[in-house]
Backbone:
């Protein structure tokens, strides 16, 4: 059905094109006749042009276009093009001459001289229009094939990008699925420590705090991004829960908190793994109060977020290899190419620095 529609559309456009060319040719002949003082009738000239010149070329155009659409290999090699041109010269052109001679009444041949005169009349007829039509059909077919290849390439690139996007989304979901149980496990550990200490009041308060944290975590799991300000509030709630366990030993200095944080996007559960890592490698590795700093600073078109803690003798040599920090680094890379996480020792402190572009 589609092939028939394509053929009908091709035939209609070809007829319209050659009708327009016939109209222009008839107008030129009519103008020449007027200048030469020869009487003529334009509709008759138009019909003559269309029947004698256009009709054979309509057959050539439609037939050649249909054949190339069905068998594109006909012109895939230069020798095939030469063969088509030879067929045009040896088959179509003589057939066109015979058709025009029949219309003009030139077929009454009584001698070899009449045959020679007919050949001389016909040899100069139709060469340019026929060869130009042949070249135009080939050029159009080559253009169409090139266009189809370009569209196919674009579709393949689009499909590849969609596939990569789907894979990245699945990777993001996988990272999130790893992160949320990790956070839940650590939060439950904090409550378990309170229960083991036998302080029921603090344990009940911790369960209430944990409920608020889980509510945020579940809400964040349905989004790809949140704001730095929301993440900071989540960290404050998390620290309140941990403070039930560590008491006055837990001290975190927050610097640079401002209105700018409400406008900057980041992945959900970005800051909590960094602060958790600092707590684990500070309070759990030495006696006395913690010395943790969480700072925010604008650096040109980037927001720098630093979490630092002392790196004592009992600290793990490279805390940045933990699951929380590793997942955070991957999620930042997936969110934006310019976002990054650098973690390592700087003097006697361990520094985890997140850099976020101000505009995504």
Residues:
């Amino acid at each position: 059905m589609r092939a028939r529609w394509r053929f009908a559309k091709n035939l209609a456009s070809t007829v319209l094109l050659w009708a327009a060319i016939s109209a222009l040719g008839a107008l030129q002949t009519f103008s020449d006749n007027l200048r030469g003082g020869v009487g003529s009738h334009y509709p008759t000239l138009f019909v003559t042009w269309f029947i004698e010149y256009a009709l054979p070329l309509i057959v050539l155009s439609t037939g050649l276009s249909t054949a190339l659409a069905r068998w594109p290999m006909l012109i895939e090699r230069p020798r095939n093009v030469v063969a088509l041109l030879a067929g045009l010269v040896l088959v179509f052109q003589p057939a066109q001459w015979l058709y025009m001679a029949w219309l003009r009444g030139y077929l009454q041949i009584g001698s070899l001289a009449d045959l020679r005169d007919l050949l001389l009349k016909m040899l100069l007829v139709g060469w340019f229009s026929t060869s130009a039509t042949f070249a135009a059909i080939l050029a159009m077919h080559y253009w169409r094939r090139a266009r189809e290849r370009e569209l196919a390439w674009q579709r393949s690139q689009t499909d590849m990008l969609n596939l990569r996007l789907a894979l990245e989304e699945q990777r993001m979901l996988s990272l999130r699925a790893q992160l949320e149980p990790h956070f839940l496990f650590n939060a439950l550990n904090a409550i378990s420590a309170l229960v083991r200490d036998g302080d029921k009041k603090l344990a009940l308060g911790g369960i209430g705090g944990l409920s608020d944290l889980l509510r945020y975590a579940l809400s964040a799991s349905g989004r790809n991004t949140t704001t730095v300000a929301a993440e900071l509030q989540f960290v404050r709630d998390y620290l309140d829960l941990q403070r039930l366990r560590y008491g006055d030993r837990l001290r975190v200095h927050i610097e640079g908190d401002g209105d700018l944080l409400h406008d900057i996007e980041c992945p959900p559960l970005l800051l909590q793994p960094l602060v958790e890592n600092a707590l684990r490698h500070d309070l759990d590795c030495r006696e006395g109060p913690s010395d943790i700093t969480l700072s925010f600073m604008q650096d040109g078109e980037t927001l720098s977020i630093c979490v630092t803690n002392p790196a004592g003798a009992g600290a793990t040599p490279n805390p940045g290899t933990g699951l929380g920090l590793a997942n955070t680094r991957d999620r930042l890379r997936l969110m934006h190419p310019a976002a990054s996480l650098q973690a390592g020792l700087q003097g006697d402190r361990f520094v985890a620095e997140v850099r976020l572009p101000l505009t995504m």
Remarks:
- The chain is about 65% helix and 10% strand.
- Residues 225 and 267 are 5 Å apart (CA to CA).
